[in-house]
Structure formats: structure tokens, C-alpha cells
Design brief:
Elements: E1 2-6, H1 10-17, E2 20-22, E3 39-40, H2 44-57, H3 63-69, H4 72-79, H5 85-96, E4 100-105, H6 111-117, E5 124-128, E6 139-141, E7 149-153, E8 155-156, E9 161-162, H7 163-177, H8 187-194, H9 196-211, E10 214-215, E11 224-229, E12 241-243, E13 248-253, H10 259-269, E14 275-281, E15 288-292
Parallel strand pairs: 3-9, 8-10, 13-14
Antiparallel strand pairs: 1-5, 2-12, 4-11, 5-13, 6-7, 7-11, 14-15
């Protein structure tokens, strides 16, 4: 379950009443540092060391493949996407401008989230049934009529994005998936992964996933998860609208939300599968408690 907070206003009411999500462009987020982090690129020496280390740790693998990608000229060709870092950043930002961004949190019970994103507890929080693999760096969703949507947790740090670590992580992931049923990595399948055109395309496409999910560590209380609509078919995905009505499952009323607004929201979102909850300021601890609610 993932959650979105909102104030009781016409824009939010229109979105929930029509059962729609809107994927924003990166320049529409509320933090100018967000979706625009610096990227650290490796030197050739650093790249060669990490690649050779990865190759040396591969087991049950074609020795011809190891020999080929340990060759100096092949390593230089594999490193080539990183040589013109300014051009790569320019391309990356152009790609990022076309990605649609939809933000959620994993926590409906954080006091700061209620204060900052729900009009000081006067608004609401909605829970959506979005299931994803929390053990992966990203997961792909099949919820929105064939749209290519990736889900990724936000990384909180004051450091730049480490392009080399992302590259090696992706490479390790792709090589693992290329193994046959017996766990062996043959030459042809391994070469398809590390082939220049393939790995360059993959690293560029997925670097934007990390570029758009990297925020300053001071925002870590948000515990944020992002849905990213990727423009892999060359279509701009920022501005995308998709239906959310089938996955809306829970509604939490803010502790200071007027009763009349609770009734309005209940009527708008009532269904056989939607649960409603009241929030109250706890008298036993500094926080908020929740209980089932019914206003219609």
C-alpha cells in the first residue's frame, strides 16, 4: 500500500472524484534540488578497476567472455559513454524532462506529512493498492493500461549520484538475468549484455530512474516512493493522466478536518472496497491514532 496526502481543495477533489493520477514534470516538484542532482562520473582508471573486479568475481561463466572483456581496447570502448560527461548530462536532463513523476509515501502515520502535505491535519490521506518488489532497485508496474511505469524508492543523500556504482549494479543485474536455467553464463548471452550499443542504451535509460529519485537527506522523513512513466517509445510522459479508481482502497480523514468535508469526501469515494478511517490526536502519546469511520 502506498499513500498520497492532500488538502481539501477543488484541484484535489476533482482528481480523486474523477479517479485520476497526474504525472508531473520534474520542474514541478517543490524542491529545486530535487530531480536535478549532480552526477559523479568515473575516471578511466576507476572504471577499469571496477569492471575487472566484477569480471573476476563472476563464476560459472564462459572464459572466452572474461578474456574478451578484460582486453584493454574493449574496456576503452565500454567506457566511452562516460568520456563526454557534459554531453551525457545534457542528454540525461532532456530525457528526464520527458519522464512523468508521481509521488507517494510508504507511511500514512507521520506527523510531519500530515502537517506539510495535508493542510496541518485539515486534509486527508488516501491509500492505494500498489504492489511492488521492495527487494529490487526498481520494479515495473502493469496497472495503467499498458503504460510503461517504473516504481522506485527515493534515495536520500547529500552526495552526488555515483554513475559508476549504478553502472556496475546494472551490469551485475543484467548478467545475472542472462544466465541459463542451470546458472551458466555463456558467451553469446553475456556478450548481448555487455555489447557496446546495448549497455550504453540501458545505462542511459536507467540512469534517469536514479536521477529522478535522488533527494537531499533532509527530506528522508517523507519515506517516498515514486512512480516514473518512462518515454521508452519516444513519447513525452510528463503530463500523463491514468485511472486510479480501481486501486483506491483507504481514506484517512485529518484530525482537524471539518465534519462537512468528511461527509463530502465519503460520498465522492464510497465503494464496496474503500475503507474510511478517523484520525485523532492521541491523549496517551505524542502522535495520531486511527479508527474506522462512517459518515454516510
Amino acid at each position: 500500500m502506498l499513500y498520497r496526502f492532500g488538502s481539501f481543495n477543488s484541484l484535489n477533489l476533482d482528481a480523486v472524484a474523477n479517479g485520476s493520477f497526474y504525472f508531473s514534470q520534474r520542474d514541478q516538484v517543490n524542491d529545486p534540488l530535487d530531480c536535478n542532482p549532480p552526477v559523479q562520473f568515473p575516471t578511466y582508471g576507476e572504471f577499469k578497476y571496477r569492471l575487472n573486479k566484477l569480471l573476476s568475481e563472476l563464476n560459472n561463466c564462459s572464459p572466452e567472455f572474461i578474456d574478451l572483456f578484460s582486453n584493454e581496447k574493449v574496456i576503452e570502448a565500454t567506457y566511452s559513454p562516460f568520456r563526454d560527461s557534459k554531453r551525457l548530462i545534457e542528454l540525461l536532463k532532456n530525457q528526464a524532462d520527458r519522464v512523468g513523476i508521481l509521488c507517494f509515501t510508504k507511511d500514512y502515520n507521520h506527523p510531519l506529512m500530515w502537517s506539510h502535505y495535508s493542510d496541518g491535519h485539515r486534509g486527508f490521506c488516501i491509500g492505494y493498492d500498489i504492489d511492488y518488489d521492495t527487494t529490487q532497485l526498481w520494479d515495473e508496474l502493469d496497472l495503467f493500461s499498458g503504460e510503461k511505469i517504473f516504481v522506485r524508492y527515493v534515495n536520500y543523500s547529500s552526495e552526488p549520484i555515483d554513475a559508476l556504482t549504478i553502472y556496475i549494479t546494472l551490469l551485475h543485474f543484467m548478467l545475472r538475468n542472462a544466465r541459463d536455467k542451470k546458472g551458466y553464463l555463456n558467451f553469446d548471452d553475456a556478450y548481448k549484455v555487455l555489447g557496446f550499443e546495448n549497455i550504453s542504451r540501458v545505462i542511459f535509460a536507467h540512469l534517469s530512474l536514479f536521477f529522478l529519485s535522488h533527494k537531499h537527506e533532509s527530506w528522508s522523513y517523507e519515506n517516498e516512493v515514486r512512480l516514473l512513466a518512462m518515454p521508452f517509445d519516444n513519447k513525452v510522459r510528463s503530463g500523463l493522466k491514468v485511472s486510479s479508481s480501481k486501486i483506491l482502497k483507504r481514506v484517512y480523514f485529518g484530525a482537524k478536518m471539518p465534519k462537512s468535508q468528511k461527509i463530502t469526501l465519503s460520498k465522492l469515494l464510497a465503494s464496496e472496497t474503500t475503507e474510511f478511517f478517523e484520525s485523532r490526536f492521541s491523549e496517551e502519546k505524542l502522535g495520531v491514532t486511527f479508527s474506522p469511520a462512517c459518515y454516510i
